[in-house]
Amino acid sequence: MHGISQHQHGYSNSWWQALQPYIRKVFEDGNLGDTRREVLWSDLVNASTAVDMVDTTQKEQLKREILAILEDRQRQEIAAKTGGGRQVSLAMQTRVIEPSAILGIDDFLIYMLSSEMRQQIINRFTDTVKPLLGSNNQIDIISHSWGTVVAYEGLRGLEAEQSLQGQVSNFFTVGSALSIGPVRASLRPQNQDGRRPSMVNKWINLDAQGDLVGGMLGDMFEITQENLGLQPTGCLLEWFGYRLSCAHGSYFVKENTTVNRDIFAHCILE
Known about the structure:
4 strands, single chain, 43% helix, alpha/beta, 270 residues
């Protein structure tokens, strides 16, 4: 389950290449469309008609609230790296949240503010997951970034389906936007209790250093396991810390054995 910005069919190929060496034949050959499924929703929020679904004033206000939280997290990371004081002020003058992240947030604002678009996106998730659970399968779900919100709300919506006998062995939320206050407040009312979806056996949350989108979920959500402060493999440690754009995607780097072998594969093989 991908996050914001444009994604194409096959986006999970790199995820699979990083994970496959450590899980033997659990998913057989892991062929896309067979034992490996993708949920693709970026085309919905990037359609020309999507921008007309939300009020511009509400959208800009919500964007400001979210960016303020990301910038505050950035200040805290810089303070921790530099010792605070004037260094933080100088760093914030030269380093802002990357433009790509700001633009990408627009995608998800449409989900948060349009009930119609939210349902369309959740349908993409349930159209993929519901038949698997309906056939009594044991599945694992890896969700990233803003896609963790869709996956969580989608799973909560499926709880009403009495015919689903399958189980989600592991629900992985990676760099999860569920850590952001305004995002939590925008969940459907019935999902704001933070309860683990009933068909989920284990809910594992991951967050890397420098990933300002992700964070702790255990303060609100019924998490089974949290893995916080992970090393962002492949990212350069600069004097102010790690860049968001690198840290946020570092989980799926092939060399990241901590995530792919010690967390993903370990939980899947248990």
